[in-house]
TrEMBL record, chain A:
Cleaved signal peptide residues: none
PANTHER family for this protein: OXIDOREDUCTASE WITH IRON-SULFUR SUBUNIT, OXIDOREDUCTASE, IRON-SULPHUR BINDING SUBUNIT-RELATED-RELATED
Family matches, as SUPFAM superfamilies: 2Fe-2S ferredoxin-like, CO dehydrogenase ISP C-domain like
Origin species: Novosphingobium panipatense
InterPro entries documented for this protein: 2Fe-2S-bd (IPR002888), 2Fe-2S-bd_dom_sf (IPR036884), 2Fe-2S_ferredoxin-like_sf (IPR036010), 2Fe-2S_ferredoxin-type (IPR001041), 2Fe2S_fd_BS (IPR006058), Aldehyde_Oxdr_Iron-Sulfur (IPR052914), Beta-grasp_dom_sf (IPR012675)
Pfam family, one: Fer2
Keywords: Iron, Metal-binding, Oxidoreductase
Keyword Iron listed: yes
Positions of the 2Fe-2S ferredoxin-type domain: 1-75
Domain of life where this protein originates: Bacteria
Protein name as catalogued: Xanthine dehydrogenase YagT iron-sulfur-binding subunit
Annotated coiled-coil segments of the chain: none
Length: 166, 326
């Protein structure tokens, strides 16, 4: 069953019980995507599927025929970091780093969602264009927990990328 | 996770045929896979319905038809829904996270199962999970449990937000049967009270597939969805209220309300609406509405707080919706 991961063709043939997360880590050796809770509660496993962020622990690999998956390995290289990666480094947006791949995938999708005008729970007017205030960033990133509590620096890092994009 | 046969449905009738005893349909998978990992759900066959053409939102006579596979994100982002049914967008945005809502579907959201701790713990008795084993929550830890419509067998609540807004909007669930026949079930009658059969969350029959949710004409008015929870984000409702009120010459012209977190289904009590309509808004009136709503309310101990909390949330929402000071 074909799918692409970070632009490369892959073939999934395993047990249908395999989650997308386990396939990425164990089947493809892409261990950047992390397993925290395995129940959709922590966001460590966040990846992009066809550009949308999802929890890869709560979906089966076999359900993704033909899909384009992007993991943290598809973002930047050590020589050429993605602007979000750069901002996380600059602002110390992590301590242990376990939640970081999920945070960055999530933040990337969040920027796109906001550009598409998707409102959030804290938006005053759900029909108005989105302005990514710190409150908006916090709400939109609430699906990514950080056990080290690097939250304020994570918001700083994302806010900087938002600013740069204006 | 127990093993299962995986298949992909190519047509609704195909899905209905495959949805035999012991099989489960899978849409977003965000509830079903969670439960399968814990072996609370142990289907021997999984029918993937994601390739069915149920992913669009179409105009109907007056209203909108939201395909069963429309993601919660897409539904809340739809311009028509944001403009004409803001309460629905608000309720969806109050639930889960962006990641989960990107996968969660309209049909799957309606069918999500309770968050009762005992239901989730296979070492505990639970009539919903294993009929006849008893209910651990009665006399146990029951802070999140029902205050209305519970039974001796089960005091669980339906945990979702979206369906509460749909109940206030009086939407309908479009369902296709095994023989290809279609039926419409009002959202208000879709979920059931536990009675003697808490293992049944809703009125779907074996082999029935949800194909869409149909919204009636836009109702206008002031629309509010208020959710009270332990954290201000990413938590299930303790109590929620979906409220649509239209004022006419200083009086309440129309009122439509539904409640989450109170019962095994989104709670709708026509008595509350009848009491409000035609009257001038006042705190005394709102208190009477709460009296009607909560006349039969019964706490289980740890959830007793939900009774006064529901009264306060209802009054706060009614004040705001009728333009009285909040
Ligand atoms: C951490 C976490 C937090 C959450 N917080 C909230 C919250 O605050 N508020 C809230 O409302 N929800 C919340 N949810 C629940 C979430 O909304 C549901 O998991 C989701 O809506 C289910 O949709 P799905 O498409 O993924 O369903 P699935 O998991 O695919 O299916 C769920 C059930 O529906 C059945 N089903 C699916 N589609 C159909 C169909 N077309 N016809 C018939 N049966 C069907 C399946 O057989 C299964 O039994 C949360 C979930 C998680 C994991
Ligand atoms: S309240 Fe219902 S779901 Fe919870 S333990 Fe009792 S029977 Fe099970
Ligand atoms: S590992 Fe997927 S959300 Fe925690
Ligand atoms: S940096 Fe350690 S969990 Fe976030």
């Amino acid at each position: 069953m074909p799918l692409t991961i970070n632009g490369t063709d892959h073939d999934f043939t395993g047990d249908p019980r395999t989650t997308l997360l386990d396939f990425l880590r164990d089947g493809c050796g892409l261990t950047g995507t992390k397993k925290g809770c395995d129940h959709g509660q922590c966001g460590a496993c966040t990846v992009l599927v066809n550009g949308q962020r999802i929890n890869s622990c709560l979906t089966l690999a076999v359900m993704h025929e033909g899909d384009a998956v992007t993991t943290i390995e598809g973002f930047g290289t050590p020589e050429e970091l993605h602007p979000l990666q750069e901002a996380f480094v600059r602002h110390d947006g992590f301590q242990c780093g376990y939640c970081t791949p999920g945070q960055i995938c999530s933040a990337k999708a969040m920027l796109d969602e906001a550009a598409n005008g998707w409102a959030s729970f804290v938006s005053d007017d759900i029909t108005a264009p989105v302005s990514l205030t710190r409150d908006e960033i916090r709400e939109r990133m609430s699906g990514n927990l950080c056990r080290c509590g690097a939250y304020s620096n994570i918001v700083d890092a994302i806010a900087e990328v938002v600013e740069a994009g204006r | 996770m127990k093993g299962f046969d995986y298949s992909r449905a190519e047509a609704v009738t195909h899905a209905a045929e495959q949805a035999r005893e012991g099989a489960r349909l899978i849409a977003g998978g965000t509830n079903l896979l969670d439960l399968m990992k814990l072996e609370i759900e142990r289907p021997d066959a999984l029918v993937d319905i994601n390739r069915l053409e149920l992913g669009g939102i179409e105009r109907t006579e007056g209203g909108l038809r939201i395909g069963a596979l429309v993601s919660n994100s897409a539904c809340a982002a739809d311009e028509r829904i944001r403009r004409d049914y803001p309460i629905l967008a608000r309720a969806i945005l109050a639930g889960a996270t962006f990641q989960l809502r990107n996968k969660a579907t309209t049909g799957g959201n309606l069918c999500q199962r309770t968050r009762c701790y005992y239901f989730y713990n296979r070492d505990q008795p639970c009539n919903k999970r294993e009929p006849g084993t008893g209910c651990g929550a009665i006399g146990g830890v029951n802070r999140i449990h029902a205050i209305l419509g519970a039974s001796e067998a089960c005091i669980a609540t339906y945990p979702g937000d979206m369906a509460v807004a749909l109940a206030a909007l009086d939407a309908s669930v479009e369902v296709s049967g095994r023989d290809g026949s279609a039926r419409m079930i009002p959202v208000r009658a879709f979920h059931r009270l536990p009675g003697d059969h808490p293992e049944r969350d809703n009125v779907l029959e074996a082999g029935e597939v949800i194909t869409a949710v149909v919204l009636p004409e836009p109702v206008g008015g002031t629309q509010i969805y208020r959710k009270v929870r332990d954290r201000s984000s990413y938590a299930f409702a303790l109590v929620s209220v979906a409220c649509v009120i239209a004022m006419e010459e200083g009086r309440i012209g129309r009122a439509s309300l539904a409640f989450g977190g109170l019962a095994h289904k989104p709670w709708h009590d026509p008595g509350v609406e009848e009491l409000l309509v035609g009257n001038e808004p006042s705190d005394a009136l709102f208190d009477k509405a709460a009296d009607v709503l909560l006349a039969e309310a019964k706490g289980q101990g740890a959830n007793d707080f939900k009774i006064p909390m529901t009264r306060r949330v209802l009054k706060g929402v009614l004040r705001e919706a009728t333009g009285r000071a909040v």
